[in-house]
Amino acid sequence: MRKIVVTGAAGFLGSHLVRDLLGKGYQVIGIDNLSTGRLENFNGVKNHPEFTFYKFDVSDPNVLKLPELANVDEVYHLASPASPKFYQASPFETIAVNTTGTQYMLELAKNYQSKIVYASTSEAYGDPEVHPQPEGYRGNVNTWGPRACYDEAKRLGEVICYEYFHRFNVEVKVVRIFNTYSAGLRNDDGRVISNFVTQALTGQDLTVYGDGKQTRSFCYVDDNIRALQLAMEKDEANGEIINIGNPKEYTVLEVAEMVKRLTGSNSRITFHPLPPDDPKVRRPVIDKAKKLLGWEPVIDLEEGLKRTIEAYRAQMVAQ
């Protein structure tokens, strides 16, 4: 049986991945310090016979001493706050998990000749001057600002991956993840879709930052999880950086209006100052994912929003 480690297992992406891997019959070891992850994300699988969870920080060197990690086959390193609300509140922890924590997970992979997927981010492109963004674009990132703790830590994590690939032949694959969403996204994490859906369903104003003309590309979580597993599986992805996201681009205002329509909400749309270094455009070039992974997203934004709204609504009724 394949033995798989997922860091950040109690987070949004991690918990979806854990469920999917267990459903495929694998042994899964989840690691999370629960700084932003939640144990309730494991509801339905926490007592699964092939699932083991450790409340542990992967930036702690003792993580390599956990006996259950011996002879691991695959490592998905997803651990990190991903919302500006959370990483700006914990900048040093965010830097540590994406640098020191990344090195420990690469060391684990080296020790057991394991494959590893490192979850980087579209934030590696910063506020891009090239649009849409191919993997070869080196980005426009501000090292002296409130987002740098995340953006630059992820970029340095990629450098560490490069060194382990070239020096130690570790089978590492780097995926730059663009905006991902679904009902599993915390409704208090401050990201655009979780904000809009929660606000619309509770009759609050929908808060748009700036003039709403800035663009984003939104990938439904099921498509993302499929891409992560393809990256792990494909030898062609070794030593590569691959964009994972939906190339269909929307303005933030278009998303707000779509959420209002799909929820039937009477909420107003209000405008607020744009946060520092907030990127004005964001859209991936996914030619590499298509070629190396045979992957492209299949769930469009309207369908994904319908699923998300239905689940958020059910959660609110249950509460």
Automatic annotation (TrEMBL):
Membrane-related topology note: Single-pass type II membrane protein
Domain of life where this protein originates: Bacteria
Identification of the protein by name: UDP-glucuronate decarboxylase
Gene Ontology CC, one term: cytoplasm
Single annotated GO MF: NAD+ binding
UniProt keyword list: Decarboxylase, Glycoprotein, Golgi apparatus, Lyase, Membrane, NAD, Signal-anchor, Transmembrane, Transmembrane helix
Family recorded in the similarity comment: Belongs to the NAD(P)-dependent epimerase/dehydratase family. UDP-glucuronic acid decarboxylase subfamily.
GO BP, one annotated term: D-xylose metabolic process
Pathway assignment: Nucleotide-sugar biosynthesis; UDP-alpha-D-xylose biosynthesis; UDP-alpha-D-xylose from UDP-alpha-D-glucuronate: step 1/1
EC number: 4.1.1.35
Domain (NAD(P)-binding): residue spans on this chain: 6-308
InterPro entries from the UniProt entry: NAD(P)-bd_dom (IPR016040), NAD(P)-bd_dom_sf (IPR036291), UXS-like (IPR044516)
Localization per Swiss-Prot or TrEMBL: Golgi apparatus, Golgi stack membrane
EC class of the enzyme, as a word: lyase
SUPFAM superfamilies for this protein: NAD(P)-binding Rossmann-fold domains
Names of the cofactor(s): NAD(+)
